[in-house]
Write a structure and sequence with these properties.
The complex is a heterodimer.
Chain A (H helix, E strand, L loop, with lengths): L2 E5 L2 E3 L5 E8 L8 E6 L5 E7 L6 E3 L7 E6 L4 E6 L8 E7 L5 E2 L3 E5 L2
Parallel strand pairs in A: 2-11
Antiparallel strand pairs in A: 1-3, 3-8, 4-5, 4-9, 5-6, 7-8, 9-10, 9-11
Chain B lengths: L3 E2 L3 E4 L5 E7 L10 E5 L6 E4 L13 E6 L4 E6 L8 E8 L4 E3 L3 E5 L1
Parallel strand pairs in B: 2-10
Antiparallel strand pairs in B: 1-3, 3-7, 4-5, 4-8, 6-7, 8-9, 8-10
Classes of the chains: A mainly beta, B mainly beta.
Chain lengths: ~120, ~110
């Protein structure tokens, strides 16, 4: 069974940092492009970042470029998102998503940016 | 980057058929695969259609996807509507580097 379990969210002050993690199981993690997608409360889905299987192709939404860093550890079946210089508008549930063919979503981790 | 435009909401009665459109603003809808996700309240999205018209195992055949080059749009059709189909539906595609989501359509089954 495919499972994606996110962690690392929480309440952080503006300007602060968090590191989100996603533990993958039930599939060959190293064979899939992975994404982070976020959803602000009551809003739609917003793509944040993508990373290819070997980490050689990495892309970011303009809204997070320069502040967020995506990475992966294929040996540990894990995906990460380092988020710095947080703003109120970054408050959202962050989903780890397996790309290619049938996309599969984790349950999400909530990031709240507030003073 | 292009945009994907969906109707904000649609409603239909149980047992009927509903179609949700997703119109691409520039470039051909046929040039990149379209996915459709269902998101019930309080839950994560799940894939109901991938690669334009492919249905994951476990998704009932009441769900179907198509693309129409003449209108440059993709469509999700749900037949034999059930109350459990009430959810938000998002289309998604991609360009070379970015994943693009439609704004979502709230389906009400009443």
């Amino acid at each position: 069974e495919v499972q994606l379990v996110e962690s690392g969210g929480g309440l952080v002050k503006p300007g602060g940092s968090l590191r989100l993690s996603c533990a993958a199981s039930g599939f060959t993690f190293s064979s899939y492009t992975m994404h982070w997608v976020r959803q602000a409360p009551g809003k739609g889905l917003e793509w944040v970042s993508s990373i290819s299987t070997g980490s050689n192709n990495i892309h970011y939404a303009d809204s997070v470029k320069g502040r967020f860093t995506i990475s992966r550890d294929n040996a540990k079946n894990s995906l990460f998102l380092q988020i710095n210089s947080l703003r109120a508008e970054d408050s959202a549930v962050y989903f780890c998503v397996r790309g290619q063919l049938e996309y599969f979503w984790g349950q999400g981790t909530l990031v709240t940016v507030s003073s | 980057n292009f945009m994907l435009t969906q109707p904000h909401s649609v409603s239909e009665s149980p047992g009927k058929t509903v179609t949700i459109s997703c119109t691409r603003s520039s470039g051909s809808i046929a040039s990149d695969f379209v996915q459709w996700f269902q998101q019930r309240p309080g839950s994560s999205p799940t894939t109901v259609i991938y690669e334009d018209n492919q249905r994951p195992s476990g998704v009932p055949d009441r769900f179907s996807g198509s693309i129409d080059s003449s209108s440059n749009s993709a469509s999700l059709t749900i037949s034999g509507l059930k109350t459990e189909d009430e959810a938000d539906y998002y289309c998604q595609s991609y360009d070379n580097t970015n994943q693009i989501f439609g704004g979502g359509t709230k389906l009400t089954v009443l």
